[in-house]
Amino acid sequence: MGKRGSQRKKQSAADKQAAQAPKLGHPKSMVIRIGAGEVGSSVSQLVQDVRHVMEPDTALRLKERRANKLRDYTTMCGPLGVTHLMLFSRSESGNTNLRLARTPRGPTLHFRVEKYSLCKDIQKAMKHPRAGKEDFHTAPLLVMNNFLTSDADRERLGDKAPPKHLEKLVTDMFQGMFPPIKPENPLSTIKRVLLLNRESPNDDDGSCIVTLRHYAITTKVVGLPKALRRLHAAEKIINSKEKKKSALPNLGKLEDVADFMLGPSASGYTSASDTEAETDAEVEVAAPVTRRVLSKKEKQKAAESETRKPSSLSSRPRVEKRAVKLVELGPRLRLRLTKVEEDLCNGKVLWHEYVNKSQAEVEHMEAVWDQRKKEKEERRRIQRENIEKKRKEKAEKGEEVDDDEDEDMEDYDEYDMDDDVWHDEDANEQEDLDEEMEDESDDG
């Protein structure tokens, strides 16, 4: 019996570089539970709902394990082309947190999930919930509001106003998670919309609170009464294979079809309830036209008629008015920005909501991070020298040198292996501040 060959296939350097480079205009994301099932059933369902929001460019069936570390996910971001990470976790005090990070070099935004509602809760509250699987074949349309503080609010807040570069960074982070809109894409491909609204900052603090809503976009023809639309729908049902008697209007007790169109007590006028939505929600789009397959003679006649009448109305595209309606899909999120880091979950703090440092403390932290950067570069240099030394020893012995394995080892740094150990420092600091304020109020 012949010996089976190895199933492992080596990847060339060109293929590896092509796999690591993400497609232009198509960002990919991974929504992860840190600690797997330890976050609880509600947060686990919230993670699954957020994955549906990020469809189709996300890992929908990602299975986390309790033993998985953050390094396990970051090392796979390059080969898979993942550009953003959304890390949900739960602190010891019970707070739900979200870290939004851009791979591979950051930055990282830390959010506190103050409130959230699951998709199933929203569907239970709706009379006619929408369950369309075709809506998730394309990415949602991103709409952002009030992310930049106006000059009047900045003057009113003074030093408490958030920095301009911070607002620009948060805006770019959210925009980079979804593909940009292209003029050549048809409007029919846009099935969903994701609304992000930043609440206006209070006078007490310049906090950044973002609310998230997820909707499906539905359209219907306007300008027709409800009764006429039912007759048009009934004609489609009669011509189709599947006939539903409940959808057909009953005209047996009426003397004329006008009684059905206008109603017995309408006196020639339609009611206000039969009118469509407001004119602001109406758009004009090209109507789909079904064309019959013409024979050769019919094509010749059509060509002759077009040459005779070059500016005929039949050659113009047919336009119809449609009313746009949003149906909420869920989930709902209320996020509070607490911290911004420079690197991927383990870098220099660029902004903190609860901690304000003096200029001397900032300069001291800059010196500490410069020293860490130099130590990291020195470790990299020593690691590269050790790799070259091993290659030479293998070459002298006549052994095969595995370049891919050595290149992968260069990406690891012992100093950064514990970057997944993350505690809710912001929650602890906020709880300490609340306790101090309560003590002061009691003393007063």
UniProtKB/TrEMBL annotation:
Domain Brix: from-to ranges: 29-346
Biased amino acid composition, Low complexity: 14-23
Basic residues composition-biased segments: 1-11
Pfam families given in the database record: Brix
Chain segments carrying region Disordered: 1-28, 294-320, 369-444
GO cellular component: preribosome, large subunit precursor
InterPro entries attached to this UniProt entry: ARM-type_fold, Brix, PPAN-like
Biased composition (Acidic residues): 399-444
GO BP terms in the entry: ribosomal large subunit assembly; rRNA processing
Name this protein carries in UniProt: Brix-domain-containing protein
Species per Swiss-Prot/TrEMBL record: Corynespora cassiicola Philippines
Organism taxonomic ancestry: Eukaryota, Fungi, Dikarya, Ascomycota, Pezizomycotina
